[in-house]
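Q: Could you fold this chain for me?
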Amino acid sequence: MKILSIVDSFKNSLTSLEISKLLQEEALKRNINLDYLPISDGGDGFLDVISFIIPGEFIKVSFTGFDGNLYEDSYYVANDIAYIEVARFIGLHLTNKIKKDPKSYGTISLGKVIKDVYQRGIRKIVVGLGGTATNDFGMGMLSELGFNFINDSKITLHMSPRKFNENTQVVVSDEFIYRDLNFTIISDVKNELFGLEGATYTFGPQKGIKNYELAHIETIGKDFSKKIINLGYNDTTKLLGAGAAGGLGFALTSVFKAKINSGINFILDLIDFDLLQNKYDIIITGEGKIDRQSLQGKVVFEIASRTLKNVVLICAINDLRIDEIPQSLNNIVKIESIVPKLASKEESLKNPQKYIRILAKKIFDEI
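A: Sure. Below is the predicted structure, expressed as C-alpha cells.
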C-alpha cells in the first residue's frame, strides 16, 4: 500500500512540511510506504512548498517591521522567477509583541522586496497572498515603488490608512519604473475589495480592526481606489480576489494587471498532481480546521475533487459531518480530528507534534 500525504499547515501550530514529516515517521514504524508533498494556498508556508518542488535559492532581505525594528527574511528565486510569501514581511506574527494598530500598518516592506527583485533584473514575480496584518489596499507598497502621496503639499512617507484622507493627492513620480513587472497572484481568497464580504469587513476584525473603525477604513479604501483608477489604472474593485491580503489584490491587479490563480490549483498543477496521484492507493490531506467554509475551494476539497483515490482528511478541529460532504466527493472515507477526542484545543496547541503522532497512529492502525 502506498500513501501520499499532502496536508496544509495547521494555523498557529505546525507547517505543512512539519506535519508531513511526522506522518511519514509514524508510517515507517509500521512499514507503510508514505510519500509527502508540502502544500499551501499562497499563505504561510508558500515558500516551503515552492522550494521543495523547484530548485532555486533563497535571497535574504532586511526590512523594517511594524514596530520600527529591523528584521531579515527571504524570498525565493528559481528559473528567473521570484516567489514572495508576503506574510514573511507584513504578517500577523510581526504584531505579536506590539500594541495592535492596524490603521498604521502599511505594505511598505513588500514594496522594498519588490524593488530588490527588480534591481536583480528579475521581471516575473509570483506573490503568495495570505496571513497579512495589513489592510492598506496596497498604498504602502505603491508609495515605496514611486507613487507619491501628498498631504499639505508634502510627500507623506511610510504610507498607511492612518495617514490617508480625502485631501490626499496621489501622483505617479518618475521613480515608478516598474511597469514591466509581470505579477501572478497566488490566493484562494475570492472576496471583492469592498462591501460586507470585502477585504475590510471580512478580514479586518481578524487583524484587530475595531467594529466601529470598519466603515471609516472602508471609506479610506474607496477614496484611495478612486484616485488610483482616475490615474488611468484598471478598476478591479469588483474582481474576485481584489480583497485578498487587505486589498493588496486590488493594487496588484489594477496597477500591474496581475493575474490571480487559485493557490491550491497552482501548486497541484506545478507538481502534476493529476498524474502523480495515480501512483498511490490513499491520499491523506487536511488543514487546521475543517468546516463548511472548507467546501468553498479550500485545499482539502480541491485535492479530493481531483482524485478518485480514497481520501482521509485530518485536522485539529472538525466542524463538518461526513454526511455534509457533497456526493461528488464520496471518495472522502473519513475525517479524523484531534480536538476533542485526543486532546483539548489548549493541549493540542501546547504539544502539536505529540497529537499529530497519536492521530497518525490511529489512522495507520485502522488501514
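A (continued): Residues 46-263 form a domain with the Glycerate kinase, domain 2 fold (CATH 3.90.1510.10).
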